[in-house]
Amino acid sequence: FHIRVGQVPPLEKGSPGKVILAFTGTPGPEFDSIRRKGYYISVGERDTEVASVSAPVYGVNWQLLGAISISGPLGRLTKKKLEAFAETLVGKANQLSIALGGKRAVSLAG
To answer: Could you give the CA distance from residue 103 to residue 55 in angstroms, rounded to a whole number?
Structure first.
């Protein structure tokens, strides 16, 4: 799946878009779950052969700037591997948020 310059991918598919929707307040059980976890794992949503995990990144005054992600071929990034990466990714998203002038973003909920 390739995105060309200027192309806007659908936010409803894939981990970066769903994280952005969740952390901008989109209602619904799926988005509530994403907010509780602090990340989202996508397996084959936008492209059947791609998997990813994403976490929110904030700036000044707790303003959502976007999402940081790890993605790759589904053959290499299984859901189990992405779950293992999620804690590190959330930690890095927090560090990036602090560096960009934000506050501590989220912590993983058990």
So the answer is: 14
Three-class SS state of 21: helix
Could you tell me where the DSSP H helices lie in 3-78? Answer: 15-23, 29-37
In a structure prediction context, what are the per-residue pLDDT tens digits for the chain, which is 110 residues long? 567 888 887 899 999 999 999 999 999 999 999 999 999 999 999 889 999 999 999 998 889 999 999 999 999 999 999 999 999 999 999 999 999 985 554 555 54
Which residues, at least 6 apart from 62, have a Cβ–Cβ distance to it below 8 Å? 102, 103
Record the pTM.
0.86
Residues 51 and 79 sit within 8 Å (Cβ to Cβ): yes
